[in-house]
Amino acid sequence: MKALLYIETSGDKVLGGSVELISAVKAIDAEGTALVIGNKVAAGTVASFGIPVIYTDSVATDNDTLTEVLFEIVKGENPDMLLFANTALSKDVAPRIAARMNFGCVSDVIGMSKNDGKVMYTRPAYGGTIFERIEVEGASVVTVRGGSFSKPEAAANAEITEKNVQIPANAIKAKIVDVVKEISESVNLEEAQVIVAGGRGMGSAENFELVKELARVLGGVVGATRPPIEDGWISRAHQVGQSGKVVAPKLYIACGISGATQHTSGISGSDYIVAINKDEDAPIFEIANLAIVGDVTEILKGMIEEMKKVKAE
Amino acid sequence: MQILICVKQVPDDSIEIRLDNKTKMPNLNGVSMVANAFDTYALEMAVRFMEANGGNVSVLNVGAEDSTNTLKNCLAVGAKEAYFVQDDSFVNLDALGAADALANAIRKIENDKGQKFDLILCGLESTDEITGQVGAMLAEKLETGFVSRAIAFNVKDGDLQVNQETEEGYNVVSVISPAVVTVSKPEYDPRYPTIKTKMASRKAVIPTFSAAEIGEVKQAIVRLVEYVEPPKREAGIKIQEKDAVLAVSAAIEQMKKDKAI
Amino acid sequence: MANYNQLTEELISKLKEAAPGHILTGADIKEDYSHDEMPIYGTRAPEAVLMAHSTEEIAAVVKICNENLIPVTPRGSGSGLVGGCVPLLGGVLIDITKMNKILSYDLENFVVRVQAGVLLNDLAEDALKQGLLYAPDPGEKFACLAGNVATNAGGMRAVKYGTTRDYVAEMTVVLPSGEITNFGAKVSKTSSGYDLLDLMIGSEGTLGVITELTLKLIPAPKQVASLIAPFENLHDCISTVPKFKMAHINAQALEFMEREIVLASERFIGRSVFPQVVDGITANAYLLVTLDAGSEDELNNLIEQASEVLLESGAIDVLVADTPAKMKDAWAARSSFLEAILAETKLLDECDVVVPVNQIAPYLEFCAKAAEECGVEIKSFGHAGDGNLHIYQTSNDLEEDEFKHRVEKFFDIIYPEAIRVGGNVSGEHGVGSGKVSYLADSIGELNMNLMRGIKKVFDPNLIMNPGKVCYSVNE
Q: What are the binding positions for FAD in this chain (chain A) (predicted)?
């Protein structure tokens, strides 16, 4: 079984969710080839995980160009499977390739297994309350949710093959003519190792500062559920959950978050969840490794001080 | 501008849907079927554009189940025309099959009307299966331009311009018409029908076709094998100390023990 | 009032023996226990709290209290508005919120057995999953069912389906003596002596502690929709109400609201549903109507008829909430009124009168005039279908004493007027400690003494919820 992995890059950097695809391919015993477009340093980084790389020297940061480049390469390679990390760009491109190649398309996959030579995909539906198990007849295009597979280990450098792709001019139908930034900060929740998130239970913008302070002390990123965002305590770039960012940090601290499915289904990939809530029946406690029942502002104040000590050790 | 919105009928998403332990299917008991929320945002966006600039707004549904009522609800909030393709063979449509059926239906409607759609809108994703594939696939089938996650659109110097939601704000994307555009949640909510529009929509006759009348149905290649319940994370240790200081130190001890910090 | 004793260390250890691990004292008693949602009627912390887990435990604690003349106050979620659950004389507070299990459904007799502390919201949702409706629909969805029963809570759907009283089949009660008894039966008729069940309903914890309930359910209506009708003025809006009945339209809910309160609520929930200007006309009052029917066609016909009535009565337009999401949004605004007022107001009092439906409009006009005379700001909404009005007095700039003084003056004008037009002092919130004097004024000495007599039969030592309903603490 041949798998082609599209590795998304940002400058010289390889996006974390993309390299997890290398582990995903291993999990189903497929023979993987990575595809890197436009950055040779990144191609080298990927090859250092021991997976052969096809490198194409095109600029393909928009949906139309990327679709065209991938289409040409997929036609040439004829893989059984084309894998993407579940980013905004690949969510647009994956179904387009699937339609052109008549491949089956499976989105937001969180698990893959192989039975009798067939791959079984697991993915959430209905806001994350139900999982679907899916099979594809023939070749497939798959987007994989970040954090579903581990980061690969370094290995002996594999080979990089260069390929050139010509893009017909009429392939570009949509062009970005302006970029408007309303939020200046950049929030990298998907890649965060530590996330401290606050919910309605924080009560006020002032108390929400405690969430930010603990995140700062732990060197983590601030997350939020919808109410603090609607109340203007923090910008929407911080929203975690099915309709915000799906995250998978090593440590997730949920402060004053009751734990609606919409939120919990977006954090279930976390390694360790700590929840602080005054309501001992809060649903968030059902998924927390460590549940602290109590006044969230008091606990946070104490925890900020104690964590400073831990960090100083 | 001639605008078409592809509407999917889904179980009402204001109720949390869970697996029925006996049938191993989503328990839809007492859950009404409604237009997919993102599709209703697309409709409101289109109707606002039509009210300001003229033109026409149509809605289209393809499916195995009766969706006349859902389509009438769309007519009651501003759509001028509705089309329905109903066929039992659509029951297990995958996204590619849905895109195919929509493309066939669109060609058929365009032929019958002798007029092409300039803009085809789809919701960003459906609230039931959340694949978000159909819009992009439809653009491929129709060989049109494609823009995702629109929060607004406009015509500037004869060009279609779409504001595409990003994490930091939005991109302004210029796209050749006709185009397929998927719509995210804009700042406003869809309107309520008034009694007048509601009653008028009840009397509407919706042209309905069978699959055979629009083209050929493709076998699904993506197959649902089963629904399962999400694995439960084991609930861990609970700290219920009255004193915040004691609670924090107990928590830190436990986190150290579990190597979380 | 009777003489009471203080809780001694010795008594506390007795209580702890009776309910091991469930008696809270000292710093463990949270501040919430000293008030309900209307702290203007006074606050007082209990000396001990029983975090009740069973009927037997409550019985044991009440028995000790009765023998030692310790006041006992039962408490649910504390969402009351007349001070009903405030332990005015200290003593022992019984928190029933941990008794929150839905015990069993009897789908052949259409009843459900619940513990007293089950939340209204939890029962409503659980029943709906089985296609059943628990019909009473008080605004506060996170109140305990026993609290609903103790105040005979009404709610939005009362106009069609009646109040809580109509849905109680049976209950288990701990009497002030500490004895456990059952009232009622799982039958739909009774002609078997005095109705003790009905006596308990609306007794506000003064006759005993309700610990379990058997509640009636009905099949959930298949099709539901709501109408939002903006009016230019309140008079036209209210005058529509009797016309529904005359047109044979039995609305499930029929709520009126004034512009100010709708705006406050929409600010609070951060979303706008109610149209403010239609065809150049500013809406100053709204009716929110819910209709239910057995089939889609039947519902659509009903919507059409109801809209005709509304438009003929002067509605500027009629909006139709015909999907669950739209209905939810429309009612979210209505359900948030109290929270929205609380969020924007420093001082608050409320009157929950009920007047004959044809008197709503003149009565509200009377109140508006009286408010102006007394220098009181008011915000009104209510259940137009059954004449139950919620008139809130609010202030952000008055001193508390001055506010209380003006409100008292206001009440002294408007309560007698309510009685004069054939109304009652409380439609659904109860009497608690806040409205005892207005109740006495309205029902008279003779009836008040009948109530006191009943109270004494149940509770000779007057330990249950002292200072509420028919005895004030000062007496």
A: 200, 225-226, 239-243, 256-263, 277
Tokens 């008696």, located at residue: C23
CB C322 within 8 A of CB B73: yes
Q: Is residue A249 part of a domain?
A: yes
> Does the distance separating the beta carbons of B193 and C322 come in below 8 Å?
yes
Tens digit of each residue's pLDDT (9 = 90 or more) over C36-94: 999 889 899 999 999 999 999 999 999 999 999 999 999 999 999 999 999 999 999 99
Kindly determine whether residue B195 and residue C311, on different chains, have CB atoms separated by under 8 Å: yes
Tell me which residue of C165, B248, C11 sits closest to A296, measured CA to CA: B248
Report ipTM (2 d.p.).
Answer: 0.83
Interstrand relation of B179-183 and B145-156 (parallel, antiparallel or unpaired)? parallel
Is the CB of A289 less than 8 angstroms away from the CB of B258? yes
DSSP β-ladder status, B119-123 and B81-86: unpaired
**Could you tell me the CATH number of the domain that includes residue A292?**
3.40.50.1220
* pTM of the predicted protein model: 0.87
Closest by Cβ to C320, choosing from B30, B37, B193:
B193
Classify burial at B22, counting beta carbons within 10 Å of its beta carbon; exposed 0-12, middle 13-18, buried 19 or more. exposed
Q: What residue numbers bound the domain in which C27 lies?
A: 9-97
- Our CA angle for C98, C141, C225, nearest 5°, is 145
Range of the domain at A256: 194-312
Residues in chain B within 8 Å Cβ distance of C276? none
Q: Compute the distance between CA of residue C112 and CA of residue C135 in angstroms, rounded to an integer.
A: 13
Does C474 reside within a domain? no
Assess contact for C216 and C111: CB atoms under 8 A. yes
C214 shares a domain with C227? no
Cβ of residue B7 closer than 8 Å to a chain A Cβ:
no
In a domain, C442, yes or no: no
Domain B2-214, architecture per CATH: 3-Layer(aba) Sandwich (3.40)
Q: Is A239 annotated as a binding residue?
A: yes
**Full pLDDT tens readout for chain C, 475 residues:** 578 999 999 999 999 999 999 999 998 898 889 999 998 898 999 999 999 999 999 999 999 999 999 999 999 999 999 999 999 999 999 999 999 999 999 999 999 999 999 999 999 989 988 889 999 999 888 899 999 999 999 988 998 999 999 999 999 999 999 999 999 988 777 778 899 999 999 999 999 999 999 999 999 998 999 999 999 998 999 989 989 989 999 999 999 999 989 998 888 777 788 999 998 999 999 999 999 999 988 999 999 999 999 999 999 999 999 898 899 889 988 888 888 888 888 999 999 999 998 899 899 999 999 999 999 999 989 998 889 999 999 999 999 999 999 999 999 999 999 999 999 998 889 999 999 999 998 899 999 999 999 999 999 999 999 999 999 887 6
Q: Which amino acid is at C211?
A: T
Question: What CATH number is attached to the domain comprising C15?
Answer: 3.30.43.10
In a domain, C90, yes or no: yes
Asked if C182 and C259 sit in the same domain, the reply is: no
Given a contact cutoff of 8 angstroms between Cβ atoms, the answer to whether A29 and A113 are in contact is: no
Residue-wise pLDDT tens digits, A251-297: 999 999 998 888 898 898 899 999 999 888 888 999 999 999 999 99
**Structurally, how many domains does chain A consist of?**
2
The interface residues of chain C toward chain B in range 223-252, judged by CB-CB distance below 8 A, are 227-228
Q: For residues C75 and C116, is the Cβ–Cβ distance under 8 A?
A: no
- State whether C147 and C166 are in the same domain: yes
Q: Is A225 assigned a ligand-binding role in the annotation?
A: yes
Structure tokens at A214: 């603990």
Per the structure, the count of domains in chain C is 4
User: What residue type is assigned to position A89 of the chain?
Assistant: L
Q: Identify whether residues C181 and C279 lie together within a single domain.
A: no
Final residue before a domain boundary, out of A108, A138, A171: A171
Instruction: Tell me the shortest Cα–Cα distance from C291 to chain B, in angstroms.
Output: 14
- Between the two ends of chain B, the Cα-to-Cα distance in Å is 58
Task: Work out the burial of residue B155: count CB atoms within 10 Å of its CB; fewer than 13 is exposed, 13-18 middle, 19 or more buried.
Answer: middle
